[in-house]
Amino acid sequence: MTxxxxxxxxASERGFFPTELFARWGVWVALxxxxxxxxxxxxxxxxxxxxxxxxxxxxxALSYNMLLGQTGMLSFGHAVYYGLGAYLVVHAINIVTAQRxxxxxxxxxxIGGLSGLFFGILFGWVSTKRSGTAFAMISLGLAELVGSxxxxxxxxxxxxxxxxxxxxxxxxxxxxxxxxxxxxYYLIAFWxxxxxxxxxxxxxxxxxxxxxxxxxxxxxxxxxGYNPQVVRFLAFCLSGFFAGxxxxxxxxxxxxxxxxxxxxxxxxxxxxxxxxxxxxxxxGPVIGAVLVSYLQVMLSDLTEVWQLYFGLxxxxxxxxxxxxxxxxxxxxxxxxxxxxxxxxxxxYLVSFIPALAMTAGLILIIEMLFRISVKEGxxxxxxxxxxxxxxxxPVLWGVALVLLIGGGFLFRMxxxxxxxxxGRATSEGAAA
Amino acid sequence: xxxxxxxxxGLKKSFGPTEVIRGIDLSVxxxxxxxxxxxxxxxxxxxxxxxxxxxxxxxxxxxxxxQDITPLxxxxxxxxxxxxxxxxxxxxxxxxxxxxxxxxxxxxxxxRYRFWRDVDSSPEANERTERILTDFNLIDRKDVxxxxxxxxxxxxxxxxxxxxxxxxxxxxxxxxxxxxxHETDRAVDLIRKVSEGRxxxxxxxxxxxxxGLADRISVLVYGAIIATGTPDQIRNDPKVKEAYLGQxxx
Lengths: 432, 250
Hints:
The complex is a heterodimer. Chain A is mainly alpha-helical.
């Protein structure tokens, strides 16, 4: 009986063939169109550079999430595969240029991918024998190993300066030499879309499902015929492949590979981006990568202690939104579906104002303390507000404390409104 | 002479100085429903751990369908047609009920570690998953995350995953633990149905379940089997009465 129903619904889906086609390809076509149009909207050099960085970061973060979100493996050394991919692509471009081989630049990221895959197989063989904390520790050790090798093996890694290249001297396709940033943007956008598609498809394969199963319960996986070590190993290799592609794209974008690629900062950033975006959802790391790339460029222009804010943001996400931004979006998508979103929005607005005041107070205090302690009392300048005052000014401190404490107090007062509204919105939606 | 599906030869298991299984010889015949009963701490779950490969015996051998499986890891034992459930529900919490059961199906239909084909493109996997979910009355819950099912539903899912791969030897570790009377009755009907034509080994505390279901019963006390026989033989065995049933059932 239920079987008939399922069959009937499948038949009707086939009847609406275009709908099925749309469901399958609609998102990807829309994404392609978006990537195509973006540089026409944001034309500035900064915007192009930033969007290129975002594309690279998306591939890198999604590859990281094949481990963290999909298979439940916490790696502290993912930059290894990114960095090695970048180095091999730089060398490959140099060799191809020197030998005048007929290989165009757009194929180069594949070399990065294959390098990532190769080292994924090599290092994965060792590290995926263990899971959990042991795996995390091994990944950290391997990152240290490769990072310090990059300074010792000068022939290949070029020591402190790294290895440079020129991306514009390869065989031309469509008369593009990939000198201008816009051409590099489109190269990155193409690979980004392709990798996103492939990584998404992999989540929907037998291996992809067993990765999720291994994440949830590695013990049980053994009792449905799978070896969780093999599942982890394959996930690790594939993840290395895509990380290598991201590294290759970075090499093309920067025309240099140096030891900074292997740094703990690099491995840490991809973890932060993935976590802030939401490791539990496929599109989470995409949001995280876009946001983190944006903040890295914009915040570092605004303040020297941007990494501190970055850390605070990470802590806030871990504590208050452990599902990441994607988790928050999905929570609200449910409300939209139930038609009860309007029940929470007013309370958000009320709570938003004290929250903003509290944050502003906190930022003021951080900036003043930074200037007093590190910058020998350099004046605090906030141009849009026409503010230019010494960081020891009692007025400024007074304002900051009022904002922080008053805002914090009012926020505590108004927060129950939000949680009540949330409770009503979800319960009424469920009843309906 | 009937064929042994599972044969245990002089099986022993120690944890440090503590000997939990003290030399078990047991033969489970093809197609029978064989129950293991015994007081708490008798070593029933340890015995299942040994047979399914989760634990390695200190000495002795385990034969499955005439072949020695003693040194094999769990996944290789599973591929030879032995599947088990757990006393503490052991499912994939963050995956849907549908995905849970399909994970149980995938290896047995040869999907292996494929990462180049959509899992939905296998009609065999989908048909089998659907049939099992229907058998277990879970088809209406197929899109729900396994972690938010009711306790009884999780127990049903536990067994569904166990039988999903079509193993012909099934080990069930206290499948009705924590269930109400009504839920237990339904679970026993289900177990009877799914063990049809297969070999079943079952650990169970509920005596009414055991005596209604089992063809033969082995009584495990302090790591040794003190009696094996039909339910009637066991009920009337003086040793068993003294060691076990005397305190509880009768």
